[in-house]
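hey so i finally got around to running the thing on that chain from the lab meeting. sorry it took forever, my laptop kept dying and i had to restart like 3 times. anyway pasting the input first so we r on the same page abt which one it is
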Amino acid sequence: MTVTCLTFNPFQENTYLLHDDTKECVVIDPGCYEKHEQEELKKFVKDNDLKVVRLLNTHCHIDHVLGNKFVADTYNVPLEIHPDEEQILRAVPTYAPNYGFQLYAEQLPEKYLKEGDIVKFGNTELEVILAPGHAPGHVVFYNKPEKTVIGGDVLFQGSIGRTDLPGGDFDTLIQSIKTKLFTLPDDVTVYSGHGPETTIGYEKKYNPFLR
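ok and heres what got predicted. didnt touch it at all, straight out
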């Protein structure tokens, strides 16, 4: 499985494209809002001869959903989220203009993810793990053979997701990290929603929020 990160919008959000040798591709948390950002994603898909087959959100804060409609419409794929994120997603149009996103176009989910689900594409499988705290229905996607987690805004290099947004809770987030992520092998790579990737072992040892 190949993991590609494209960083979009003023929040510097990491959009992930996952594909394997079958050329089937999953888009996770598309943050592309501006036309040139949408074209960058489209160009990557075309240049690598990929077929987008699934559209997933780890959670539905504005910076992670700005490109949902573009991806859904361009590649004719339904949006998939955890049901506890739908209220968060439906709130985005009410505050998007306050952040300068007057042209935000809403895309509602057609499918729902729950803990333990297996997301399949090509020859690849991702396990859905529920890890609330930053957002109520936040999920991460774990590929066990590749020792890879697409982690959204749960755990960052040297930091954790903020918990001062609606639906956030600090104690819940710490519990999620300790019971859902820190139980994974130390050499698992975590691809975060912002900033560089890290590993479970590094964060266990050095993350100041989790010592």
